[in-house]
Design a protein that fits this description.
Helix content is 69%, strand content 0%. The chain is mainly alpha-helical. α1 packs antiparallel against α8, α4 packs antiparallel against α7 and α7 packs antiparallel against α8. The mean pLDDT is 95. Bound molecules: fe (ii) ion (2 copies).
């Protein structure tokens, strides 16, 4: 990884010292869930507006939002486990005296608390631990062991940015449970620093890449992003409200509302990756199938 100036990590370290959360203290885990409130924004649910959606009553739709938010949190947690390992591997060879190393470790500390928070959230929601499908779970094992450099940070950035867009909207939505909103608020605040760090790492490293390396990082980033995006909603969530997971998945992927939601989640980060030359013509098909690119 290219050595970068200390300015950004130093600023991020100061900000971390000033404003960080302890989910054990800052989230009221014992507060009762509020009857009649959604667990996430209904319009962002994968089935919103589909023929299957029309067959559900209000109570079932709210129940689906409980399972779908837990699935997304579970995939967030899964990706945090991957990124903590990637960053720890990188720090293994780093100079322990410099701000960049200190910040990387601080970020791992943030993610560690987030993963505890998401785990507690899923438990509090009283739903299964969905996570990604077994196939993607296995692929993640290889990725966390091997990925490094630009595509490691670009994949981290994609996962962080798409969840950020969704959580920023969720945390302001008064129709949503205070618990979901508080977890999102904490995550949004701390992830803003992570995204600055990832962007800085990418900007510093891309100019030094050979053509071949650039091609490799473009491919890895597109494929990882595809896996993350397609994993957000585990099809088993549909079974929780009595729907056939296969048919529901088919309707979700073909749902223009959901396609718009995914493209909205990907809009900002794709603009950045494109600016950095990280989206080649050969990867456009993969990006489109991820739904993050319209
Ligand atoms: Fe996080
Ligand atoms: Fe993060």
């Amino acid at each position: 990884m290219t050595v970068t100036a200390d300015a950004v990590p130093t600023r991020l370290l100061k900000s971390s010292a000033k404003q960080s959360y302890d989910p054990d203290v800052d989230v009221d885990w014992d507060a009762p869930l509020v009857d009649g409130l959604w667990f996430m924004q209904p319009e962002r649910l994968s089935l919103y507006g589909t023929p299957l959606w029309e067959t559900l009553d209000e109570q079932q739709r709210i129940e689906l939002s409980r399972h779908e938010v837990a699935s997304i949190a579970g995939v967030g947690l899964w990706f945090e486990l991957i990124l903590m390992q990637m960053m720890i591997r990188e720090v293994y060879d780093a100079d322990p005296r410099v701000a960049r190393t200190h910040y990387a470790l601080t970020e791992v500390g943030d993610e560690c608390r987030h993963s505890v928070m998401f785990g507690q959230l899923i438990d509090r929601l009283g739903v299964p631990a969905y996570g990604p499908t077994p196939y993607v779970h296995r692929l993640g094992r290889g990725f966390k062991t091997l990925a490094s450099g630009v595509s490691a940070y670009a994949s981290i950035l994609v996962a962080e940015e798409i969840l950020d867009r969704w959580q920023r909207e969720l945390m302001r939505d008064e129709r949503v449970q205070p618990l979901s909103r508080m977890v999102s608020r904490i995550h949004v605040l701390e992830e803003a620093r992570h995204m600055s760090f990832a962007r800085e790492q990418i900007q510093a490293a891309v100019p030094g890449l050979s053509r071949r390396a650039l091609g490799w990082h473009r491919t890895v980033t597109a494929n990882t992003s595809f896996m993350v995006a397609r994993s957000l909603v585990n099809p088993q969530v549909y079974a929780a409200v009595g729907l056939d997971p296969r048919e529901a998945r088919r309707q979700a992927l073909a749902n223009p509302h959901y396609q718009q939601t995914m493209a909205w989640m990907g809009e900002r980060v794709l603009g950045f990756l494109d600016e950095q030359g990280l989206i080649g013509r050969a990867q456009r098909g993969t990006w489109r199938r991820s739904l993050l690119m319209p």
